[in-house]
Amino acid sequence: MGKSLTFAALLIAAVSVAGGQNEDSESFAERLQALDSRLRELGPEGGLPDPEHYRPAAVRGRFERLLEARAELARMNARQQPVSSRVDYLLVAARSNDLLFEHQTTKPWARDPMFYLEPIRRYPYPDPAVDPELLRRRLEQVPEWLEAARANLTEVAGELAGIALFHLENYDGVGQGEPLRDPPPAGILGWYRELEKRTAQAEPAMRDEARAAAGAVESFRDWLRQRRESFDAPAHLGWTRYQWYLHNVRLMPFTVSEVQAIGTRELARSRTLWEIERRRNRDLAPLELAADEREYAGRVAEAERRIHETIERLELLTIPDGLAAFETDAFWRAGMKRHFWEEIQYRDAHNNHIHASIPGHRFDRLLARRVEDPLRGGFQDGGRAEGWAYYVESLLLHSGLLDDRPRARELFYIAEIARAVRIPIELRMQSGESSLEEAVREMVRLVPLMEENLARYDLEIYLRRPAYGMNYVMGRVQLEQLLAERSVALGEDFDLGAFHDRFLSYGWIPITLIGWEMNGWDERAERFWEARLAELRKGGDD
Question: Which of 85, 232, 292, 321 shows the smallest number of beta carbons within 10 Å?
Fold first, then answer.
């Protein structure tokens, strides 16, 4: 990231972070909340995408406002505040760092064609008769939005263009969120062409809008095709920028080399446990796939009942009264090629239901929404969210949930292999050592039951969103480290269920900061704090 003279000029007039006048916690919190609100306004827009929002002049205007907010943040005297306020300060700093990184490094509006396809890819899914006026407004907006995309995409990365072309022309084999079709439409363009046919029959007054929208999507596809060979910018970040992001946006205390070592070790450990488990179970009958949707729904309901029973019997955490049953994250799809998670879930419903439903994401999200503090309640850290969801897989496995289902235990270890392999593969993509296609082949080779559709689905995310693939393992590693520290500190007074309840009460803020709240301020916290303030003072430049 290059030097920003504008930011430097702003900071010359600012007092250092260590200086400034002392202020009471209430005043400090109010200023911090106001800054956080300003930063959120500079982030992704909601509702129908506005073609003017990502024009170069509009982007430059938001960048200047970001630098002004960062200079004001740097003037605040956070050192004199209690630990909870310093935690809040770093949350706001992380949000500002994320925006800075987006403006100076990832620049999706200039580099990534999928940035423009994602807001509009779901438009054709609903029945046109359900809300025809909303659909009309959406379709009318598509041509102008994609015209703006062609003007704004001035630094396109070749692999990112390839991802967009794939999704424009192909069903991805995973289809999360898509209505079921057999056969499914051929990608985003296929869905728009299907919508054109549906509106001609169901909503003929909307036929022209549907035709124009489909034509705009096809024209955008052709534009990408014609220029594909000239899009030679790299998609990867390189380790230096990846590590800056890891420390200053994700607030994780690891170097890239440490992440790589931990991921490699976790991959070997999970593969070893899988081999031991399947040797132990070699004389047992294999798990059968659910025969139909009804049988699968019964398995999901039984899995939820067993999960609840184990949590309550061992008092692993508190489940609020009156909690409704959670739906599954792996829905039933008949007559279609199964992807990796379906291969697991259709054999035994426990693993992904724990991770995605209870006590994983859906349950966790329900509790996070109860965090009343607007700053913390509005923060969503992937390492915290995915780390917890991955951790509870192990928690329930080792709490005896599947002692009577040894073959299902094998599936848990296969899932662990899939989580762990993401780290070395993501790092090779982000360092430029591996292409996306090479990474897909490697993931299929290393993970039992893995197939190319789910591998591609995951790895596209990890190429486009840095430090996402490592969330699962590194979040769990942090959580386990914090648990161990609290266990040692409290000795016989340590209560596992109370620890989980307290951990969940902080919402989705980085686990590094949750550790400060639980353990108090120590030398590690001081070192990490000083390093983050130093980066804020220089604006995150290399």
Answer: 321
